[in-house]
Amino acid sequence: MFLDLFICILGEYSSSGSSLCFLLHVFVLSSAKMSDDEMACFVAAATVTSYFLHERERRKKRAHRYWIHPVIADREERGHFWVMYSDLHYHEDTFLDYTRMSIKSFDELLGLLSSRLQRMDTYFCNSIPPVERLIITLR
């Protein structure tokens, strides 16, 4: 019976944020009237309830975060590599200054390493392509 009353009162106070203080106060006041079994049951219920309240607060804090930040989400259209690479690949001297190797050497190196640089795409985001990984590494 006491446990039913405890859960009902806790539901009333959990939205205010002061439920843990209330639980401790009720525990101190009612500990003299409880048997050992009731006290053990109360302590277990208070522990489980405080854990779930803590988890609820933690989830509220994390709710505003992004899986992929909007700035990074359009990386394939506005990112440094995607803007520069097409221009660099048409100008041998600029490509040489940027990567410290010729376009032919870069393409050969990419052919050798592309299988090792390739990662799997996921449902959440696309992997960084081997050509981008290599040019970032060389830069």
Q: Which structural category do the helix and sheet elements fall into?
A: mainly alpha
- Total beta strands: 0
Total domain count: 2
Q: Give the % helix.
A: over 70%
Mean pLDDT over all positions = 75
* Percent of sequence in beta strands: under 5%
Distance between the termini: 71 Å
H-E string: HHHHHHHHH
Name the shape in a single word.
Answer: rod-shaped
Protein name: Protein ALP1-like
What does this structure look like?
3% of the residues are buried. With 139 residues, the protein is mainly α. Helices cover 73% and strands 0% of the residues. It has 2 domains: 2-62, no CATH class; 70-138, no CATH class.
Topology diagram in text:
Blueprint lengths: L1 H12 L5 H12 L5 H27 L7 H4 L1 H4 L1 H11 L1 H8 L3 H15 L12 H9 L1
Salient structural properties:
single chain; 139 residues; mainly alpha; 2 domains; 9 helices; 73% helix; rod-shaped; disordered N terminus
